[in-house]
Each structure stands twice: as structure tokens, then as C-alpha cells.
Amino acid sequence: MHKIYLFICILIFSSTTILAYEDPRKFPDIDPIYIDIDILDPDQKVGYTVGDYIFREINLTVRKPFKLIEESLPIVGYEKRYRGQLLGISLKEIDISKETKDEYSNYLIKLKYQIFTNSVTAKPASITADYYRFINPNEPKKIQKFRIPEFTFAISPIAIFGDVKVENDMSPYRGPFFLDKTPDENKIKFSLLILLIISLMFVYIYGRYTWLPNRTFSIVYRKFKKQKASAVNTKKIITALHTGFDSLIDQSLFEDNIPLLIKKNSSFKHIEKELHTFFKISRALFFQKHIKLDQDELNIWLINFALHCRMCERKLIVNPKDIKGISF
Amino acid sequence: MSDQNLTDWRKLGLKLEAEINKVILGQEAPIRLITNAIFARGHVLLEGDVGVGKTTLLKAFARSIGGGYERIEGTIDLMPNDLIYHTYLGEDGKPHVDEGPILKSGEDLSIFFFNEINRARPQVHSLLLRIMAEKTLSAFNQEFAFPHLTVFADRNQVEREETFEIPSAARDRFMMEIPIIIPQVDKLMNRLIFDTKFHDGDKLISEVTPNMIKFDQLNKLSSEIQNTIKSTSALEKYSLNLWKATKNPEKYNVKISGIDTERLIISGASPRGISMMMKCARVSAWLNNRTSILPEDIHAIFHETIAHRLVFNPVYELRRTEISRELSNEILNKVSVT
């Protein structure tokens, strides 16, 4: 009994295997009047090496009543064989677009093969012929085939075995190696973009304190650096400096809250002595009219003080030698 | 009064301050403010917790100034006539009427110390208002004058039972309201605990030199200080802006966390308040040996002369102490000098 079951199983298995291994060449050729074919193969016939792609474009027109059996088209991943031997060429992509009219159907089949073989010497290779099958719906059991011709080319070694001399290796039959530079270009563009963003961030971070114009004391210094000494101008620059300090600490700055200013910007620590002198001058000018001031000396001192404030604003350290007193 | 006299008086003023600082620990700022008020001829209200030394501080000042000194305790059953007279049956069995604390020293009354003023009824406040403002009193068909009188009062903010809120009109009569806070300095606190010298208040006060200042010359001196110390237009503009800021703080970008400053103030500082502030600023400049007022002189007395005069929206009145300090600080921070 077991033997019978075993026999039936072997019979079923072998029948399916035989059907799967069905040789397409056994089908009769279709009458060429039903088929128009236009194949676009690469111009390059030599110089292929491992990793290269080969593109084929087949424009196939099938007249009625025949139809293309789309299952007979090559399958992605299928590796070409010649006499049972692997050729090292496999189908990477297939793109089919179909257009159906009353009289015919048109197929545009784009095939992309990749080479996985190489050799130390040049060797012939080919994308072997494919057999596409067609069916007449009126005679469904009578399947017919059409042979897609092979494409032959030569696989070349990456380098000549042994000593390589470029001047001796200028074969006119081998095309130049083209490297795809697009990914590298994209990487460079992306890197430049990152670099630009980082640079802008640094400019923002350091620029706040260094060279960016139109900060409070930059404006004061620029506005008053060329002013002539006079009581009115002195009042103007002192008022501008007070306003600058007030805006810096977001409240009125008085002599007793100078530590608040230093806390806000520690660079002002280096001109603390000057700050106290400034308040002394300001008090004398605005609130103690009996104190007499030398306008010329005062003007020079105030402009120098405005410059020091600008430096502190930019986080620069004022040289202690530049700090001068004033007598009044 | 010559400049030399002003200089001598200043030295005396600083000596008075040093004398009080000898017996009162860690209260340099309030002592400077009370000294200021004495020379500006203003009344002083002290505010603070129980047992922080308010009474001792005022008693020490009273001793050093000289002149008549009277004191009364604020209680809920105190009536205005208790300040003016009291009646009793004498040894002869007949009723007698004696002067009360206000009248006892006559014109020489220099210090009237009202302890726990907020325990007294509004009727008593009313009488006191007149005495403080006009320095006169009508009683027994007679007009009494107290030209040298300074009222010192204290109150504690902690107890609310059996107390009366001092009305804003009465608060406005006080030149300063000075908060008394124990400084959180371990060394000072240690002395207060372990130095027995500070445990007997009366003995402590007896260490203060009595009658250092001729109380009957203070009015003249004060006028002289006010006439001598000058202010510039810049300072006048600054003072004006400060006054305006007490009325409309929001216009000066004054912001207090959690407070709607537009709704906070019902009434800002009064003209009397601002004039008192300027009087104190002049005295501050004088005490610092200057002939002109600086913004720092105003800062030194701004909170104490202004904050208690502001009338807050009732919503915020319960938090007056906390809010008024923040408000005055913020006004000084935001109002620009130039």
C-alpha cells in the first residue's frame, strides 16, 4: 500500500517538474506578420565589468488576434544561463507599459541587467535570446513563440593582469569607464549646506558680541566720535550712554547697581573704574551745577569711554593702560 | 544760620545716629531714615512684627532729642479725651482734672510716642490727625500749640483682632512709614540672644546720651536745610516722573509679577507726599555732605516716604506690604533719570 502512495507522489512531483521545465523553444514560431519589434541596445559593446548595467528597450507590437502572455516575460532576479552554465548576468529591473488599440497591442519593455562576473582577460558574453509567448484566444491551446534576439558584448578585466601601463592600454575597442558622480555631488552639496548653516550659527553667536554693527554702544560711538566739545554735546553723549546702559540691563542703571551691569556682561568689569567716573561726571553735569568741567577734556574722555563700552559690548577686553582718569 | 552751623549740625546729626546704632543692632538703615525724618520735621510710623525693637528704637531717639516726651498705649477703649486730660479723686476727696499726655509738657512737647496706634479707635486717629497736621489743639476753651512736636507711632501688621486700619488720610500725615525687619545675620542674631546687655530695654536706652540735640532749634535748622540744598531741572524732571509713575505705573512700563498694574493704583502719591519726599531727599543730601540733591538721595527715602500713601485697589490691599515694596523698587528701576 505504501509503495502505491509513494509511486503516486513521485508521479505527481515529476509531472509538475516536467511542466515547470517546459522548454519554450518547443512552441511553434508565430507568423512574423503579427509582430513588429524594435530593440534598442547599448552602443557600447566592450568594456563591461562587474557591477555595470546594461539597458535594453524592446518596443513590441502584437497584432490581433494574438496577445502577449505576460508571464513569458523575463523575471527580475533571473540569472541568464548558457547551456546550463550561469553567465553572471541577471535581470535587475523590468518596466512594462502597455497600450491596447483595436488592431494591435503595443508593449514597451525596459530591461535593466547587471553584470556579476569578471575576468582577468576579455571574454565574450551575451544576454541570451528570450522567447516571448503569444496566444490566440480563439485557439487557446495553440501557443506560439517569438524569439527576442540576443545581445552580445565583451566583458573586460578591471585592469590588465600584471604591470599596468596606461599608454599601452589605450584600446580603441574598450569604452571609457564612467563613474556616476551624482551621489558624490549630492554629498558635497549637503556638506556645504551644513557648513553654511554652522557658519551662520557661529556668525550669529559670535557676531552678537563682535563685529555685527548697530548695537547700542556702536551707535553711540559712531554718532559722537567726531563731535566737538560743548556743554550741549556733552549732555547728549551722556544721555545716550545712560540710555544704552538702561537698555542693556532693562532698567535704569545707577552707580549702586553697577554690579547688575557686570553680571549681565562681565566685560564691563574691566572698566568698572571708568563707570564710577562716568557717574561722577553725569552727577556733576546734571545735578551739581556748582562743579565746573573742562569741556574739551571731558569730550575726549567721554568718546574714549563710549569706545570702551563698545568694546565691552563686543566682549573684548579693554587694555587697563587705555583707562584714563579725569580731573574736576 | 551759616554754612559752618549747618556743618556742625550735620556732625551732631551723625553723632546722634552713631549713638542710636550703639544700642540698636543691625538697624542702620531705619536709624538713618528716622534721623532724616527728625531733621525734615516729619512724623514717623514704624511697622514690623512683635518684639523686633520698634518701641526701644523710638524711645532711644526720644531720649537723645530731649524736650518733653510723652507716651500713650493704643487700646480699643482709648478715647480722644484720654489724650487731653484725666480726672481722679484727690486725697482731699475732691475731683481733680489733670492734663493728659498731650498737654502735660505744653509747648516743649517734642516727642509724642503712640504705641500700637492701630489698636486705637478712628476717633483717636482723628484727633491725632489734627495735632500732627496743625500742631495745635483746642481744649478747655483754649488753643494749645506744639511747635516742636514730632509724633512717633508704631503698629504691628501681624495681629488683626481688635485693631483698626489706619485710614489713608492719617497715613498721609506721616512723613515716613519705616519697616523694621530683623537682619538675618547670624553674628547679630547671636548677640541679640546671648549678650545680656540687649535683654533690658530700659537699661539699654539709658546708655544713649540724653538731650544731644536742642529740640527747639530743629524747626529753624530744618528750614535752613531746605533752603540751602538745591535741585537742578534734571532732578525736578526726574522727581516729577516718579510722581507720575506712582499714579500710572503702567505708563512707565512698571510690571509686577501676578499684578495688573493698570488696576493696582486707585490713588497715587499726594502733593503733600511728594513735597515730603523732596524734603527728605534734601536732608539726605545734607547728611551726605552735599549741597545738591542726587537721584540716590531720592532712592534712599522713596519707598518709606511714598509707599504708605498709595491707595491700592481693595483686591490687592491685603498684600500691601509685599506689593508696595515691589512697586517702589520697580518704579525706581523703570523711571529713567535722563
For the largest sheet of chain A, list the strands in their spatial order: 1-2-6-5-4
Major protein interface: A-B, 16 and 20 residues
| Chain oligomer state | heterodimer
Specify the structural class of chain B.
alpha/beta
CATH superfamily of the largest domain in chain B: P-loop containing nucleotide triphosphate hydrolases
Strand content of chain A: 15-25%
Question: From the alpha-carbon coordinates, what is the Rg of chain B to the nearest angstrom?
Answer: 21 Å
- In total, the number of strands of chain A is 10
Average pLDDT across residues of chain A?
A: 84
Could you explain how this protein is built, in words?
The complex is a heterodimer of chains A (328) and B (338). Chain A is of the alpha+beta class. Chain A folds into 2 domains: 24-168; 216-322, no CATH class. Helices cover 35% and strands 24% of the residues of chain A. Chain A has helices at 2-20, 182-207, 216-224, 231-249, 258-264, 272-286, 295-313, and strands spanning 35-40, 53-63, 67-68, 79-82, 85-100, 104-115, 123-127, 130-136, 139-148, 151-155. Chain A has a 5-stranded antiparallel β-sheet, with no helix packed on it. Chain A has a 3-stranded antiparallel β-sheet with strand order 3-8-9, with no helix packed on it. Chain A has a two-stranded antiparallel ribbon with strand order 7-10. In chain A, a hairpin with a 2-residue loop joins strand 8 and strand 9. In chain A, helix 3 runs antiparallel to helix 4, helix 3 runs antiparallel to helix 7 and helix 4 (231-249) packs parallel to helix 7. The longest helix of chain A is centred in the middle third of the chain and has 26 residues, at 182-207. Chain B is of the alpha/beta class and 338 residues long. Chain B folds into 2 domains: 3-216, Rossmann fold (3-Layer(aba) Sandwich), CATH 3.40.50; 229-334, Magnesium chelatase subunit I, C-Terminal domain (Helicase, Ruva Protein, domain 3). Chain B has 16 helices and 11 strands. Chain B has helices spanning 3-23, 28-40, 54-65, 80-84, 101-104, 122-134, 168-173, 186-194, 201-205, 218-228, 233-247, 261-264, 271-287, 295-306, 314-317, 320-334; strands at residues 43-48, 68-73, 85-89, 95-99, 109-115, 136-139, 142-145, 150-155, 174-180, 265-267, 311-312. In chain B, the strands form 4 sheets. Chain B has a 5-stranded parallel β-sheet with strand order 2-5-8-1-9. Chain B has a two-stranded antiparallel sheet with strand order 3-4. In chain B, strands 6-7 form a two-stranded antiparallel sheet. In chain B, helix 2 packs across helix 13 and helix 13 (271-287) packs across helix 14. Chain B is globular and about 70 Å long. The model of chain B has no long low-confidence stretch (mean pLDDT 89). The chains are: A alpha+beta (328), B alpha/beta (338).
